[in-house]
């Protein structure tokens, strides 16, 4: 059985040690780095399955590391942020983070979130692949390959954005509240800010080439949530 590898990036050795011990206890192999350039080198050379990335790093900050990772990779990333770094959380999510955990944090919770994210990006079993493709007009979503195609061709989306789109696509025309989307995509035990849904909807629209003011795919229902626009009949 493949042992998933997590790259833990934080400039504080004590925090890296705490994270490593919890992740290893949960069955992960762990690589450690203490700065931004080291994180990029380790991600490129050792190809971990997931990155736990502190925002405040020497050399390159975590958001810039994430931005550079996203130029060539869709590897899942969990950001570690301080309690007062709201702007960094939102920027990080907009750049392509899959989740964030606020310091001080529970090592057990972090390990659980890592497990959920890796389970989310795992390939679907072959027997489920044939019937799982979801199509709505020019939009096609293939859960087995985790691929999205629009009228303009393939769209590159993060693992979490893919699941968000798939959830909406499986309920075309129905309004899903932020809380419903959180429970479906992030999990029932997610305790973060509901605004994380809004940030991921923005990055998803960007990937799809969708305009929030004149949407083709995703419509905002003010004060409630979002829905996938069902294509016209015929």
Would you summarize the structure shown here?
This protein has 234 residues and is of the alpha/beta class. The protein has nine helices and twelve strands.
Write the layout of secondary structure elements.
Elements lengths: L4 E5 L3 H13 L3 E5 L2 H11 L3 E5 L7 H11 L4 E5 L4 H10 L3 E4 L4 H15 L4 H7 L1 E3 L2 E4 L4 E4 L2 E3 L3 H11 L6 E2 H9 L8 H14 L9 E4 L3 E4 L6
User: What is the total number of structural domains?
Assistant: 2
Mean pLDDT: 85
Structural class comes to: alpha/beta
Strand content: 15-25%
For the record, give the distance between the C-alpha atoms at the N and C termini, rounded to a whole number: 47 Å
Task: Give the biggest beta sheet.
Answer: 5 strands, parallel
Sequence of secondary-structure elements: EHEHEHEHEHHEEEEHEHHEE
- Strands in their spatial order, largest beta sheet: 2-1-3-4-5
Task: Supply the CATH class of the largest domain.
Answer: Alpha Beta
Question: Tags for this entry?
Answer:
single chain, 234 residues, Rossmann fold, Arc Repressor Mutant, subunit A, four-stranded antiparallel β-sheet, globular
Structure commentary:
This protein has 234 residues and is of the alpha/beta class. It folds into two domains: 5-121, Rossmann fold, CATH 3.40.50; 126-228, Arc Repressor Mutant, subunit A (Orthogonal Bundle), CATH 1.10.10.10. Helices cover 43% and strands 21% of the residues. The chain is built from nine helices and twelve strands. It has helices at residues 13-25, 36-46, 62-72, 86-95, 107-121, 126-132, 159-169, 178-186, 195-208; strands spanning 5-9, 29-33, 50-54, 77-81, 99-102, 134-136, 139-142, 147-150, 153-155, 176-177, 218-221, 225-228. The strands form three sheets. A five-stranded parallel β-sheet has the order 2-1-3-4-5, sandwiched between helices. Strand 1, helix 1 and strand 2 form a beta-alpha-beta unit. Helix 2 packs parallel to helix 3 (62-72). The radius of gyration is 18 Å and the shape is globular. The N and C termini lie far apart (47 Å). The model has no long low-confidence stretch (mean pLDDT 85).
């Amino acid at each position: 059985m493949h042992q998933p590898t997590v790259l833990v990036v934080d400039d504080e050795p004590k925090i890296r040690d705490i994270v490593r011990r919890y992740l290893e206890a949960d069955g992960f192999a762990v690589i450690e780095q203490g700065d931004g350039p080291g994180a990029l080198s380790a991600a490129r050379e050792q190809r971990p399955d997931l990155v736990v990335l502190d925002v405040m790093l020497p050399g390159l900050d975590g958001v810039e590391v994430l931005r550079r990772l996203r130029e060539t990779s869709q590897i899942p990333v969990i950001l570690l942020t301080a309690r007062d770094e709201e702007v960094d959380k939102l920027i990080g999510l907009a750049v392509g983070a899959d989740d964030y955990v606020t310091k001080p944090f529970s090592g057990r919770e972090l390990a659980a979130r890592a497990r959920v994210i890796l389970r989310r990006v795992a390939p679907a079993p072959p027997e489920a692949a044939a019937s799982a493709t979801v199509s709505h007009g020019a939009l096609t979503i293939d859960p087995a390959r985790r691929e999205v195609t629009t009228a303009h061709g393939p769209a590159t989306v993060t693992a979490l954005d893919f699941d968000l789109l798939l959830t909406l696509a499986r309920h075309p025309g129905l309004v899903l509240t932020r809380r419903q989307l959180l429970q479906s995509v992030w999990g029932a035990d997610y305790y973060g800010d509901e605004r994380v849904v809004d940030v991921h909807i923005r990055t998803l629209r960007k990937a799809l080439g969708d305009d929030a003011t004149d949407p083709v795919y995703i419509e905002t229902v003010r004060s409630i949530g979002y829905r996938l626009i069902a294509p016209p009949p015929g």
